[in-house]
Every structure is written in C-alpha cells, then in structure tokens.
Design goal:
Elements: E1 4-13, E2 23-30, E3 33-41, H1 46-64, H2 69-82, E4 91-99, E5 103-109, E6 115-118, E7 121-124, E8 129-132, E9 135-141, E10 147-151, H3 153-156, H4 169-182, H5 190-201, E11 209-218, E12 221-226, H6 235-244, E13 249-253, H7 255-264, E14 270-271, E15 284-285, E16 291-293, H8 296-305, H9 318-328, E17 331-336, H10 347-351, H11 357-370, E18 374-379
Parallel strand pairs: 12-13, 12-17, 13-16, 17-18
Antiparallel strand pairs: 1-11, 2-3, 3-4, 4-5, 5-9, 6-7, 6-10, 8-9, 10-11, 14-15
Helix pairs in contact: 1-2, 8-9, 8-11
C-alpha cells in the first residue's frame, strides 16, 4: 500500500451558543503524518476552554520535542490527576497519531474510546493496553477510505436525565454510525449528524459536544528536484535518489538541474510545445519527469501564485502548472542541491522582487506547511 493522507472533519457546539466551548481540537503535522488532540475541560465556558487549551498545548509540545505518544499521555495523566480539584485546570483528552503508512495509535484519558469506521459498519476499538488508571492505548492499521472517529463525552452522555431517553453511550454512538454508513450516507457528514443528534437528545440543555473524523485516502505525492549538488561527483546519486522516491508526480526545477538529469540518464533536453509566455521562462521535456521548468524565476512565481484560484487562470505556463501541482499535493518531497549559481539572480530579477533559490524554497516550505501539507526538504 502507498502512503495515506488524513482529512479532518470536525463538528462542535458549546453548552451555551455563542459562548466559549470547553472542548478543544488541535492538530500537528510532521513528516510521519498527523497528530490530533481532543481535550475536554470540565463543564463549559472560559475556564473549561483554558484548561483544555493548556492540556492540548502541553501534549503537542512534548510530542514536538520527541517524546512518544505513551510517555506524553502518562505525563499529562499525572498532571491531570493532581488537577481534579474544582479550582484546578483539569481536562480529559484523547491524542491520536495517524502515520502516512496508515497505522493509527491513540491514547485516551478519561474520555470515550475511538471508533473505527470501515465499509458499512462502525466498531468501538478495544484497548491494546491499559498501563495506568483511566489511561488506555489503541492501535489499528487503516486502509485508504477507512476512518477513525473521536468524540467528547458530551456526545456519549447526551440523554442523561431526559424523560423517556437513555444515556446515548458509546454503544449507542456505534449503532448510530453503523446505521449512517449502512444507509450509504457520506462518512464526512457523520460529525455534524452526531452533534445534531446529541443536542436533540439533550433538549433541556446539553454539554459541549465535539466529534472529529479522521478520514484516510491515498496521498497525492510530489517530488521536486532543484539545484545542483555542491560536488559534481554527487550528481549521479542526486539523480538516482530522485528516481527512487515513489511519487505520483515528479518535477525538475532549474536549467542546470535539468542538464544534470539529462546527462546522467542519457537524454537530450527538448523544449515543450506550449505557447511562449511573456512572464515565465519556457518549460522543457525529459523522460522521468512530469514537469521540467526553469528554476528561480518559476519558483518565485509559483510561490506568489499559491494562494490564487487557478481553475480558470487565463494563461497556462510552467509556473502555473507547478503551482497547481503544489496546491493539489498532500506530501511534497524537495531534493535540493546546495551549490550556488551566480547566474540565478540578475540585477533585473532583483528589481522585479525575485529572491534566491535557497530563500524562496524556505518561504515556499513555510507556506506549504501552513496549508496543511507534509513537506520534506532533503539537501544534497
């Protein structure tokens, strides 16, 4: 199986409409995949929200610094056990890590277990370990099209104290999800349907309710080769590395880079038959790459175009084509050589606001990550 991409769909409502919600959802993306935290503060309002925000921030901080999921959860459990007094910032939580190979690991503390959605059914996951009181760990391998569902106890506890209704419970949520899937309704609508049903069941007033769907699909992968290596003897390794990385789309950015690739693969560079552009240098054709462009100017233009809607863009050129690939990719692997080309920036280019390859790649990486994409930069 190839890599998978995780899409998040969240539905949430506060106890009092228009007031702060005590449930908080936070995410973190890394080269390995996505991490999602759902933290649930006691009751609702500002105090509950601050407790949940603090809990989620601590979890993501520990994980970002290299701690394991289990170690992080154990550490936060100890903190929260000390914060159970009414005047302390307590929050229950679930943290789920969904890697690009489809392996999902989740740890819960005092919050409902995750549900696994596949085909026409939903299943409450059984813990693989319960290392400490109220702390449970879950693990499952997802195939593209399958999902994990996280809910706060405002969902599972809905109906409590309501005349003629039972507490919904995690088993009731499981049945509701299975019925939804069996009716072939869109899985991405489940979070909103769950929250709506929970609110309906608590007609006399409800808790904060949150449902988070982590839905997997095949990842759209892009590999970019740009800039020559510092040492010419590394050219062949540079090219071979580009060839070996599995990806749906492969792009070469840079005339020198294209020449290296052509030489090492025994090809000659051919110009593309597209109409000339007044703004963008022409593209090239090489077997083994879906798009071959000039380097610095095209990268600068693709960066500037990234936030635009290009569906009906008036001109087709290599910068627009590169930008489209960046917009649609989920995982972008950039192989970049560190050699500096003195011809990269002319005085005219600087007047037009162009910046160097190294600088534009740094800015582009930040922009891509802020758009929720996994970005790997591998120097040569």
């Amino acid at each position: 199986m190839g890599t998978v991409h995780t899409e998040i769909n969240t539905a949430q409502t506060a106890h009092t409409p228009g007031k702060p919600c005590g449930d908080v959802v936070r995410t973190m993306i890394s080269e390995r995949g996505m991490i999602v935290v759902l933290a649930d503060g006691i009751r609702s309002g500002v105090r509950a929200q601050l407790a949940a925000e603090s809990c989620a921030a601590q979890i993501l901080c520990y994980l970002e610094n290299g701690d394991s999921l289990r170690k992080t959860a154990v550490r936060l459990r100890h903190v929260m056990e000390q914060n159970r007094a009414p005047d302390q910032p307590f929050a229950a939580f679930i943290v789920a890590q969904l890697r690009t190979d489809g392996v999902c690991t989740a740890v819960t503390y005092d919050i409902p277990p995750p549900l696994y959605l596949s085909g026409n059914s939903a299943t409450v996951l059984d813990p693989v370990s319960v290392s400490e009181p109220r702390l449970a760990e879950f693990r499952i391998k997802l195939e593209p099209g399958e999902s994990i569902l996280l809910v706060s106890d405002g969902i599972t506890e809905s109906g409590r104290g309501q005349a003629g209704l039972r507490v919904w419970s995690i088993a009731g949520v499981e049945d509701f999800c299975s019925d939804h899937l069996a009716a072939r309704l869109p899985v991405k609508e489940l979070p909103h349907e769950l929250v709506r049903e929970a609110v309906f069941r608590d007609r006399d007033g409800h808790d904060d309710c949150t449902a988070v769907l982590l839905h997997t699909r095949p990842s759209q992968n892009l590999v970019i080769l740009t800039g020559p290596p510092v040492r010419p003897e590394d050219d062949i390794k540079f090219v071979q590395r580009f060839q070996k990385i599995p990806a749906g789309q492969k792009v070469i950015c840079g005339g020198t880079t294209a020449s290296i690739f052509a030489r090492e693969t025994g090809q000659s560079i051919q110009p593309t038959p597209e109409s000339p552009s007044r703004f963008t240098p022409p593209g090239m054709d090489l077997q083994g790459a879906d798009l071959v462009t000039e380097g610095v100017v095209t990268l600068n233009q693709a960066y500037n175009l990234f936030d635009e809607d290009l569906e009906f863009w008036e001109e087709e050129n290599p910068a627009v084509n590169l930008c489209r690939k960046l917009q649609t990719a989920d995982r972008i692997h950039i192989l970049t050589g560190a050699a500096r080309n003195k011809n990269n920036l002319t005085a005219h280019s600087k007047q037009l606001g162009m910046i160097s390859r190294q600088d534009i790649l740094e800015l582009l990486t930040k922009k891509l990550k802020s758009a929720g994409k996994i970005v790997i930069v591998e120097p040569a």
